Amino acid sequence: MNLSERDLLYNWHPYTQHKTAQFHPAIVRGKDSLLWDENGNEFIDAIASWWVNPFGHSNQVIADAIYKQLTTLEHVLFGGFTHDKAVLLSEKLMEILPSNQKKIFYSDNGSTAVEVAIKGCLQYFYNKDKKRTKIIAFEDAFHGDTFGAMAASGISLYTEAFKSSLLEVVRVPIPTQGNEQKAIEILENLVKTDDYAAFIFEPLVLGAAGMVMYKPEILEKMITICKQNNVFTIADEVMTGFGKTGKTFASDYLHIKPDVMCLSKALTGGTIPMAITTFCQEIYDGFYDDDIDKALFHGHTFTANPTGCAAALASISLLQTDEMQHNIQRVNASHLAFEEKIKNHPKVKTTRVLGTIFALEIKTKTAESYYGTMRTKLFNFFMENGIIMRPIGNIVYILPPYIITENQLQKVYQTIENALEIV
């Protein structure tokens, strides 16, 4: 049996109905923007393997940093101890984060970063003997698969089976063009009740919703409303962080900053699982007390793993190079040129670009489900043509490694054009 056949014997894959799913291609090697399967087939990784590999696969700089760290200190518990890489990484992050972010809490992945953020906001009010037990989130949001993150997520496909067990969350519309005033009015009415600890959002781009985009100006208004009513704001930058939107963080487009930020995915350049939740001083101070019961009792075995910290330091150093910043601008310029070319195609409903993110919505006669027939047909077509992409219903998006070549980008664009002819 080959690897794909052996895989099916024991492995249970995420977001997969195994009774109807096809086999999973076995990837055996990666370099830069390319991946190869066990049969030698080559693929362009046009989504940076779920948005985590901005500097490409098998990046030598990050690999060297990981190897060096493994020969020095692979791991040490962070409960009651510290180490140089965690200190250095926190110092580096303070240089690039919004200035109101003062404290850093390490965890394992995007979902756990969100869990820490939600627990931090809820317990802040608990520590103050104030009953604020609800949070606010956008419709169609996605924040992860653990229970707090699921509660904040608005895609019922992921949460329906658990909705009776979840934290209470009230939703506001995504403030896309035409919905701004409605979103503002609903938010204003909610925060006046003193029931809500936090408003969590994906800043400027809702990834799993189909790369839905909205303007920074309206988000600033929503953050301001929350601040005026003592509701904390949480920016889930798991997808948008580390250059995806053209700036280091999507929050860098804002003059008024969120109180909490969640980071993961590209944090370590796609190498080692790691996440970070950053807090403003006010929230941290709500736990700083002589009473041990007011501490944040949350932790993970691999919190602030030294090897992950070393990978993150190398990843940030790559992001800050002139070459990588040029690559981000180059990819954005190519996306804008392709958008201009494709936006009037008779099968294209809408297009949108922000930084290295490109998305188009295909016209359909009926609503297309998240994992529907069109999505499967498009996914298979792209794979047959050597492109790894994961359409979301009738939404096709590109979020490539920043080091993708122009020739590779043009092949991706041409394949999208060809795909429009088969739907």
Automatic annotation (TrEMBL):
Q: Which reaction does it catalyse?
A: (8S)-8-amino-7-oxononanoate + S-adenosyl-L-methionine = S-adenosyl-4-methylsulfanyl-2-oxobutanoate + (7R,8S)-7,8-diammoniononanoate
One function term, GO molecular function aspect: adenosylmethionine-8-amino-7-oxononanoate transaminase activity
- What cofactor is needed? pyridoxal 5'-phosphate
Residues holding substrate = W50, K265, G299, R390
Localization, UniProt? Cytoplasm
The record's annotation in SUPFAM superfamilies points to: PLP-dependent transferases
InterPro entries tied to this protein: Aminotrans_3, BioA, PyrdxlP-dep_Trfase, PyrdxlP-dep_Trfase_major, PyrdxlP-dep_Trfase_small
Q: Which residues form a coiled coil?
A: none
UniProt KW keywords: Aminotransferase, Biotin biosynthesis, Cytoplasm, Pyridoxal phosphate, S-adenosyl-L-methionine, Transferase
Q: How does this polypeptide assemble, per the annotation?
A: Homodimer.
Any idea what this protein is called?
Adenosylmethionine-8-amino-7-oxononanoate aminotransferase
Q: Which organism is it from?
A: Flavobacterium macrobrachii
